[in-house]
């Protein structure tokens, strides 16, 4: 059972995180400093060191919280699919990823944009664990899809040797799964198209041609679906 002191500490840590996010949304990642957070909370900057060892640790916890929020939303989107058709689940997760990203551009930039000072340390900490959990949301879908209905993938000998070695290193050293390298290639191809397209939209790089990029996003999904043996279903 937690003590009153524990509960007070948890409440303060939660307030620090909420304050950091408000500053992030209002002013951008570079404005999220210990001094700015302390000023808004009516504390001194040194007092924050009772909760975080450094500015970098605070930022990594904020990154972890954001990844957890996004992951929870993706899982909620999957669970809302009824009946639980694989094609509809994949479409739902991709659409929710885009929806969250467009609704939270500053948060998205912190997670997927240019590295922010203080978050470069990718040691196995809270942020890294949360990022891996997020990534596994998509990999788990690929695993489920491959187990239920394998889709066509290229044999190893037809994959560029330089790419092949990188795919093997990623599969064996990072993912730790037993899948053909062609599946890993297809997974990364889909992620590059999904995250690349969303990034272009979030950062305003499609505005030169498109006022509404949703149809282009749906076109991308309609092209990815048959590559995975899925039937494309338009949004409700």
Automatic annotation (TrEMBL):
<keyword id="KW-0238">DNA-binding</keyword>
<dbReference type="InterPro" id="IPR036271">
    <property type="entry name" value="Tet_transcr_reg_TetR-rel_C_sf"/>
</dbReference>
<protein>
    <submittedName>
        <fullName>TetR/AcrR family transcriptional regulator</fullName>
    </submittedName>
</protein>
<dbReference type="Pfam" id="PF13305">
    <property type="entry name" value="TetR_C_33"/>
</dbReference>
<feature type="domain" description="HTH tetR-type">
    <location>
        <begin position="10"/>
        <end position="70"/>
    </location>
</feature>
<dbReference type="InterPro" id="IPR050109">
    <property type="entry name" value="HTH-type_TetR-like_transc_reg"/>
</dbReference>
<dbReference type="InterPro" id="IPR009057">
    <property type="entry name" value="Homeodomain-like_sf"/>
</dbReference>
<keyword id="KW-0804">Transcription</keyword>
<dbReference type="InterPro" id="IPR025996">
    <property type="entry name" value="MT1864/Rv1816-like_C"/>
</dbReference>
<dbReference type="Pfam" id="PF00440">
    <property type="entry name" value="TetR_N"/>
</dbReference>
<dbReference type="InterPro" id="IPR001647">
    <property type="entry name" value="HTH_TetR"/>
</dbReference>
<keyword id="KW-0805">Transcription regulation</keyword>
<feature type="DNA-binding region" description="H-T-H motif">
    <location>
        <begin position="33"/>
        <end position="52"/>
    </location>
</feature>
